[in-house]
Amino acid sequence: MTNKPLSPTDGMPRPLFQKILIANRGEIAVRIIRACQEMGIATVAVYSEADAEALHTALADEAVCIGPPPPGASYLRGDVILDAARRLGCDAVHPGYGFLAENADFADAVAAAGITFIGPSPQAMRIMGGKTSARAAMQQAGVPVVPGYQASEADADLHLAAAEIGYPVLVKAVAGGGGKGMRTVFEPKNLAAALASARREALNAFGDARIYLEKRIEQPRHIEFQILADAHGNIVHLFERECSVQRRHQKIIEETPSPFLTRELRARMGEAAVAAASAVNYVNAGTIEFLVDRAGNFYFLEMNTRLQVEHPITELATGVDLVKAQIRVAAGEPLPYTQAALSQRGHAMECRIYAEDPSNDFLPAIGKVLRAAAPTGPGVRVDAGIAGGDEITRHYDPMIAKLIVLGEDRNDAISRMDWALRHYVILGDLMTNIPFLRDIMAHPAFAAGSITTNFVDDYFGDWQPSTEEAPDLTFIAAAMYEILNDAPAVTAQGAGGASGENDDVYSPWAQRTGFRMGGD
Ligand code: MV4
To answer: Among residues of the chain, what percentage have pLDDT more than 90?
Structure first.
């Protein structure tokens, strides 16, 4: 009986896939690589010339340059990406979010190459990708949709429909999303012009001029439900995410549970979300977005047929690793839990950290990150796509990281989030929205949970960073020393005192405004 030397994988379950190509960049690529590494699955990163030194490129087992920086010449080149997957012997592709994640033609091409696309079927993508086909499918499934009209594009029919619906109405783009092409019409005399301008913008933005009407829901909340479905007909929801704090249709803060939902409303919305996924035979992870009015009426808005940026708050509150779940479902595994086995615990909250200049209309603030020291500690998670030395460029989304906390309850989550924001050190010639986020945390309306999609416009419409005392020279000297000598990161705690109770919020390490090295 020879003692066969143990192979490194002996005792470990066979990996579900041998090698996964991650067709994305930044923090979500890092996140997916991390899940693969925990599952013993080899990884292939794709990168543009601008990301040759990026974190995701460095972390993967193999990396392939797919082209120059512009997304259209790199991360959107499905043909080049698929060729890389073939050449490197990948048996699955994970698209992340954005880029090709909801591109049904890419999903088709991946499957045609005999490679598993980690996501829903192209059919489900196509139905949910068209806002009117999605509405029709939901109406058929008995999922509440906003009162509206999509039967005809003729102006005369639309005028009649708008009168029937009742003003104010919204004109929306069929191929739209994120508010592009959306117009509010308060009275009949303005409808014709709104239809024309909405069609022009939709054609420019999506190459598709089709539009439809909806009744405007006043002061709505944006509450979405996470769905997870396997290939054996099992579908569960993993509860809601409150996403109402948005700025110009860009989510900023997400949390779960929603401070607005009652147990009863949560159960009804969860059932509707599962019914929506079932109506399109959905498989894998997806999100059903609802608008919820002040009376608690909820309406299907759209379905995102991909993993979402804000998935970590669901992971922290339920204990489910959604990326691993996606990979297992794509490999044909059945869901290991029933709806009854799923529950929420505590209160999770996410802040999106953007490289943007709040004092300059939040325009993206490109520049070099000299030092990035993320906060750590009980209930604090950072999903980052950048490290010290990385450039934030104009080529890609300016989101550099997600800061997520889990608290015992909402107040605990808010105070933990403020602590973490205060201790997130991002040094370099760039600004971030951290001061803006901290002011939101401190706002009484936010603390009270009275947030709608108008929250930022209502309370922060003309927000400017508070004028801070300039960090004193000792801290600038310390920053220079730390960077030039690569000393261990000095945190606000270290700078302000051992225990942190004297944290000096004016310390450059506390990252109040964009602390510039050698800047003005
Ligand atoms: C609406 C609405 C009110 N009533 N539809 C904005 C972008 C797209 N996701 C849908 N949006 C909205 N659709 C009706 N019938 C209000 C919004 C809206 C919004 C929705 C979710 C999150 C943030 C928002 C910000 C402004 C408007």
So the answer is: 77
Q: Quick one: CATH architecture of 147-215?
A: 2-Layer Sandwich (3.30)
Q: Nearest-CA neighbor of 110 among 72, 82, 83? A: 82
Fold assignment, 353-483: D-amino Acid Aminotransferase; Chain A, domain 1 (3.30.470)
SS3 309: coil
DSSP string, 146-162: -SEE-S---HHHHHHHH
| pLDDT 10s digits, 356-394 | 987 788 898 888 888 889 999 999 999 998 887 788 888
Residue nearest to atom 18 of ligand 1 (CA): 453
- Supply the DSSP symbol for 359: G
Percent of the chain with pLDDT over 70: 87
At 6, the pLDDT band (50, 70, 90 cuts) reads: low
pLDDT for the residue 427: 87
Q: Where are the domains of the chain?
A: 19-118, 147-215, 353-483, 487-520
Give the atom of ligand 1 at the shortest distance from the alpha carbon of 179.
7
pLDDT value of position 371: 87
What are the residue numbers of the active site?
Answer: 306
Question: In this predicted structure, what is the pLDDT of residue 515?
Answer: 37
Question: Is the CATH number 3.40.50.20 carried by domain 19-118?
Answer: yes
- Is residue 381 within 8 A of residue 317, CB to CB? The reply is no
Query: Ligand 1: residues within 6 Å at CB?
Result: 146, 170, 178-179, 182, 214-217, 220, 222, 246, 249, 291, 301, 453
Q: Which of 182, 214, 251, 260 to mutate to test the pocket of ligand 1 (most atoms within 8 A of CB)?
A: 182
